[in-house]
Amino acid sequence: MFREYYKAARDNAALVEKDWNGVIRLSGSERDSWLQGMVTNDVMKLPAGQGCYAGHLSPQGKLVAQMVVLKDPDNLWLFLERAAIPNLIAAFDKLLIMEDVQVADESESVEILGLVGPQSRAVLESWLGQSLHLEGLYAHERIGDHRIVATELGYDVWVGRELADKALHAIAGSGATAIDHGTWDVLRTEAGLAMYGVDIDESTTMPELGERGISYDKGCYIGQEVVAKVKYIGHVNRRFVGLVMESPDIPPAKSPIRKDEKEIGYVTTSLLSPGLEKPIALGFVNRSANAPGTGVVISSEGKQIPATIVELPFRIPAHSAG
Question: Which fold has domain 2-190?
Fold first, then answer.
């Protein structure tokens, strides 16, 4: 069944209930200017119907939450992992003083359905009965009772929870294969997408994930001094990377990564990639050994598993879903 799910996602269209994600809505006349001082990216430049990736940091520069910020004429929407929502809302509550901004957790009223695959747009248009007009990552539009968002892997459909089952069956009836969370996890790992609470947490800094989601020419925001210092120094002490194993063993999360018998990092996610037909992993490696092509060893249950550092996303051959 897994092979069937994976093939649908690679060749056609696959659909999953993303119950690990949630939504926060910001309203009020000062929502844009207030959030501008809360996150790492420039939300003031966003036109309605567009979005961006960003992080909210602690004053020490640690990641409280990663998110996608979507702007529409009346609200800002923050799309993120549910695991990060309580701490983010608690942080926001402390930082709201007199501003006209209201923060509402809409996660219980909104269901997120994710679509991936080369036929996902055609499936959505068949279901909706009209063409989509989404250009660029995180572009979004409201169509009837639904919000459609362009994502790294395809599209998300935001639907009222009371309508979710009907929408799920209708989208599947339009040509999408329903898949499980495990298959989706393989897809997001192959795409090199870090998940909060799994790969990253409050010990992570944004520059360790790369420069995506960081604006260096916007105004001040919380944690900016730490991010700017990293930019000035020119490097991070560790970096989020991909690893391809050279044996069939799959090391568990937290397995140490070693180079020349020294521990240089650890694994966060590991699984078998059907696309590469090898085990792959995500993890953090310090700057002494994080260059692509570097050979390392992962220690797991008494075994020493050879692996190679690679850039993210993993390069999956086009024919691999067959």
Answer: Gyrase A; domain 2 (3.30.1360)
